[in-house]
Amino acid sequence: MYAVIDVETTGGNFASERLTEIAIYLHDGEKIVDEFSTLLNPEQPIPYMITRLTGISNEMVAGAPRFCEVARKIVEITEGATFVGHNASFDYNFIRHEFRRLGYNFRRPTICTVKMSRKLLPGLQSYSLGKLCRELGIVIENRHRAAGDALATTRLLELLLETDRQAIEKQSGYTIPQMIKEVPEETGVYYLHDEQGRIIYIGKSNNMFERLLQHFRNSETSKAVEMRNRAASVSYEHTGSELIALLLESDEIKAHKPLFNRAQRRSVFSYGLFDFTDENGYRHLQVGHQLNGQQPVTSFTTLEHARKYLYGIVERFELCQKLCGLYETRGACFHYGIKQCRGACIGAEAPEAYNRRVDAAIRLSGFMHPDFYIIDRGRHRDEAAVVKIAGGRYCGFGYISPSEAHDLTSLDNCIRQYNDNRDTRQIIQTFLKKNPRTKIIRVQSGD
């Protein structure tokens, strides 16, 4: 059975917006066998632009039922059916969030007719519902109203069933494995274990349940099939924060080296770029083995990568080859002869001037500020996640009450220590670039 669903809403964010209309057509693979459609009172104003798009006004929904009044009907009509939608994740997430407000966990297998159309009807100019239906000769009545769009999606589903019924039925007939049923649709790190309890795969997702479902549905590669067949149990750690999930995943893969994380598990950082100051006051940057207790400027998996990186910053900042361990000589380095070194190797450039460029090169390898805390969302409303950076290096993460997130002592005390390496710094830098509004608490020297 297929429950073809379309919703209209007060906006695009399911976490803050509400439903204004829902339509459901229950289809047995041959014909429509039941249907349900109603306006909904969103219990918040409908923006003017949304009214212009859908035609649904505040006056129209004033006397409509609230979602809680039709929730039981939605559960009953979709029970045992596959949730079908055009861009299904939009409709599904809105409905799931409405149920979550009521304390109910609404879950259904899903089929997205956008994805299935791309797969079964390749080469079309557009896969938006309006243009796709126009090209396929499907008439849409009341465009941007739930019933009209849901009925058009039902006709599209019928066409897709005619094109490749086996592909559709294979996806809709999928049952959720018992081992993942208790995994929440939350951000975190998940672990697949074999029959001996060994970790065979570690992953991160903003929706752990959906990501695991994808793993167990995937039969496209031999690796995916083998991993699924070996999996005997699942465990997970809910992090709330996407940044912490990324950092924890990276650390756990390096620690456990799971069989099916082949690419990531090779990221063992054996080499580092170290800095020290000589008796003449010049700062040196040199590549060396990373030993316990040493804190490099940055880390590398191979000597080749480390030396390539050092050559790059020597050229960019006109650093001395000799002071960077790239040219052995008692006199001037080769770059000095071609005017790419300013003479630190022979004392022609003052240490203070040279060291300023070394500082700039080090900053390029790390963060804009050497000491700070990142404050992110926690695992629930009354919690904040904290990531600590000290001396330009990642120290670890923890959780704290939002009311204490301004106190440096409390922030420091909540941190669980983790290893710093090039991967963790890259993860943090990328996250901050993608999320420029992330809350940062800088630590001033002396605090």
From TrEMBL:
Q: Name one GO molecular function term.
A: DNA binding
Answer whether the UniProt record assigns the keyword Nucleotidyltransferase to this protein: no
Q: Which CDD domains match?
A: DEDDh, GIY-YIG_UvrC_Cho
SUPFAM superfamilies, alphabetized: GIY-YIG endonuclease, Ribonuclease H-like
Q: Where is the GIY-YIG domain?
A: 185-262
Q: What Pfam families does the database record attribute to this sequence?
A: GIY-YIG (PF01541), RNase_T (PF00929)
CC per GO annotation? cytosol
Query: Transmembrane ranges?
Result: none
Q: Which SMART domains match?
A: EXOIII (SM00479), GIYc (SM00465)
Offer one example of a GO biological process linked to this entry. Answer: nucleotide-excision repair
Q: Note the InterPro entries from the entry.
A: DnaQ, GIY-YIG_endonuc, GIY-YIG_endonuc_sf, GIY-YIG_UvrC_Cho, Ribonucl_H, RNaseH-like_sf, RNaseH_sf
Keywords for the protein's UniProt record, in alphabetical order: Exonuclease, Hydrolase, Nuclease
Q: How does it assemble?
A: DNA polymerase III contains a core (composed of alpha, epsilon and theta chains) that associates with a tau subunit. This core dimerizes to form the POLIII' complex. PolIII' associates with the gamma complex (composed of gamma, delta, delta', psi and chi chains) and with the beta chain to form the complete DNA polymerase III complex.
Q: What does this protein do?
A: DNA polymerase III is a complex, multichain enzyme responsible for most of the replicative synthesis in bacteria. The epsilon subunit contain the editing function and is a proofreading 3'-5' exonuclease.
PANTHER family (UniProt xref): DNA POLYMERASE III SUBUNIT EPSILON
Recorded protein name is Exonuclease, DNA polymerase III, epsilon subunit family
